[in-house]
Design brief:
- The protein is an alpha/beta fold.
- It folds into two domains: 204 residues, Rossmann fold; 163 residues, Rossmann fold (3-Layer(aba) Sandwich).
- It is built from 17 helices and 13 strands.
- A seven-stranded parallel beta sheet has the order 3-2-1-4-5-6-7, sandwiched between helices. Strands 10-9-8-11-12-13 form a six-stranded parallel beta sheet, sandwiched between helices.
- β1, α1 and β2 form a beta-alpha-beta unit.
- The longest helix is centred in the C-terminal third of the chain and has 17 residues.
- Its EC number is 2.4.-.-.
- InterPro entries: Glyco_trans_1.
Length: 389
C-alpha cells in the first residue's frame, strides 16, 4: 500500500509538529505501507519524520501564503498547471494522500479528480480574501476534511459534499506534569512561544508588562521564544521593541528551538495573547501537559483548549490592560491557582494527548481505504486496511 503525506512547511512550529504526529499515526496503523513524505525543502522537521517515512522527497508546492499572494497571482501562476499535474500523478499512484493544511493549493485542486484518495487536514482560520479563496478550494476538492477544532470547522463551513471530522491535535508531552515551584518570593516566569507575526501578540504582552508599576514589573521575567517565517527583519523589530519599551532587563528574546521542553520547565505560566483567531492553540496544550497553566486570548480554538479559571485563564484578545490585570493577580495570589496544574494535566491526557489523536487519524484513514473496496485496482490498500483494524 502506498500513502503520500504532503506538508507545506519544514520548520518545527505547531502545524509542523502536528503533521509529524499524523505521519507517525499512519505508520503505526499501517506498519508495512510505503509512506512517502513530500516537503517543499529540507529543514528541522526532517529529523523527526525520518523514523516514520519510507522516504522524504522535496518538491515545489504551490502554497498560498498571505505574504506571497501577489507573486502567486502573477509570476508564479505559470507553474501552477505543472504543480497540479504533479499532484494528480501522486494521487493517482497512491492509495491515500494526506495533505496537511488547506493552503497547499495544487493538491486541493488535483483532489477534485480523485477525491476518494484525498484527505485534507485543516489547521488554520483564514480571514478576509484569503478565507474566501481557501473555502473555495476546500469545496472544490470534494476530499474528506479533518478540522483541528470546532472553531476551524465553523470558519470554513461544513460542506455537505464532503465527509468532515473534528480531531484535536495530539501533542507529545512529558510523562507527568512538572511540579509548581512559584510561591511569590521570586519573579514569576512567563513564557510566550510562537512565531513572530501579526497573530501571536508579542507586542500585547510587552505593552501589558510595560504598563505595570515598577515594583510589580520587577516581579516578572519573560521569555519570547520564536522566529519569523523567512523574515529576519521582523525578528530584529521585536528585539528593538523590547529595548525601546525599557524592558530589556525583564524580557529575553530567544530563537526557536527544535525541543522547547527546557523553556516549559523554566516557566511558571505560559501566555498565548493571540490577536487573531488561533485554530486550536498547540502551545496552550503543551503548557497543560507540562503543568504550566496557560493564559490565553478568548478567541478561536483557544477557548476549546483552556477552561477559564479551571485549567488556565482567558482574557479578551488585544487587551493589554486586561492581560496586565490578570498577570498582577497571578503574581500576587500564587496559592489561588495551584489547582490549575493538575486540572490542566488531566484535561491534556483525556483530550489532547498523542494516543487520542493518533487513534482518530488512523480510524479516518482506515475508513477512507475501506470505502475503496468497490474501486477497481484498490484491493491491496483495502486488504491492509482490513488487517489493521
Amino acid at each position: 500500500m502506498r500513502i503520500a503525506c504532503v506538508h507545506q512547511g519544514y520548520e518545527l512550529y505547531g502545524s509542523d509538529r502536528s503533521f509529524a504526529e499524523s505521519v507517525a499515526a499512519l505508520r503505526a496503523a499501517f506498519p508495512s505501507a510505503d509512506i512517502e513524505v513530500v516537503l517543499p525543502r529540507s529543514g528541522p522537521i526532517v529529523q523527526i519524520l525520518e523514523r516514520h517515512a519510507s522516504r522524504i522527497v522535496f518538491e515545489p508546492l504551490w502554497v498560498l501564503r498571505r505574504q506571497a499572494i501577489a507573486r502567486l497571482a502573477t509570476v508564479e501562476m505559470a507553474r501552477l498547471p505543472m504543480a497540479v499535474l504533479r499532484a494528480w500523478r501522486r494521487l493517482r499512484d497512491c492509495d491515500l494522500t494526506y495533505v496537511n493544511t488547506s493552503i497547499v493549493a495544487d493538491y486541493a485542486l488535483a483532489a477534485r479528480l480523485l477525491p476518494d484518495k484525498a484527505v485534507l487536514h485543516i489547521h488554520e482560520i483564514p480571514e478576509g480574501a484569503m478565507r474566501r479563496i481557501l473555502v473555495g478550494l476546500m469545496r472544490w476538492s470534494h476530499a474528506d476534511l479533518i478540522f483541528n477544532s470546532h472553531a476551524t470547522r465553523a470558519a470554513f463551513g461544513d460542506p455537505k459534499i464532503s465527509r468532515t471530522h473534528v480531531v484535536y491535535n495530539g501533542v507529545a508531552g512529558p510523562a507527568a506534569a512538572e511540579p509548581m515551584t512559584y510561591d511569590g518570593k521570586r519573579p514569576l516566569r512567563v513564557l510566550l512561544l510562537g512565531r513572530v507575526n501579526r497573530i501571536k501578540g508579542q507586542e500585547i504582552l510587552l505593552e501589558a508588562i510595560a504598563s505595570m508599576p515598577p515594583e510589580l514589573r520587577s516581579r516578572i521575567e519573560v521569555r519570547l521564544v520564536g522566529g519569523a517565517f523567512e523574515s529576519a527583519e521582523r525578528e530584529r523589530a521585536l528585539a528593538e521593541l523590547v529595548r525601546s519599551m525599557g524592558l530589556a532587563e525583564r524580557v529575553s528574546v530567544l530563537p526557536v528551538v527544535a525541543d522547547p521542553s527546557a523553556h516549559y520547565r523554566w516557566a511558571d505560566i505560559v501566555t498565548v495573547p493571540s490577536r487573531r483567531p488561533e485554530s486550536l492553540g498547540r502551545v496552550a496544550i503543551e503548557a497543560m501537559a507540562y503543568g504550566r497553566p496557560p493564559l490565553v486570548s478568548a478567541i478561536g480554538g483557544l477557548v476549546e483548549v483552556v477552561i477559564d479559571g479551571e485549567t488556565g485563564w482567558h482574557v479578551p484578545p488585544g487587551d493589554a490592560a486586561a492581560l496586565a490585570d490578570k498577570l498582577r493577580e497571578i503574581v500576587l495570589r500564587p496559592d489561588a491557582w495551584r489547582g490549575l496544574v493538575a486540572a490542566g494535566r488531566l484535561r491534556y491526557e483525556k483530550i489532547f494527548s498523542e494516543p487520542v489523536a493518533a487513534a482518530a487519524i488512523a480510524a479516518i484513514a482506515t475508513d477512507k481505504l475501506r470505502a475503496a473496496l468497490a474501486k477497481p485496482g484498490r484491493a491491496p490498500a483495502a486488504r491492509e486496511a482490513e488487517t489493521s483494524s
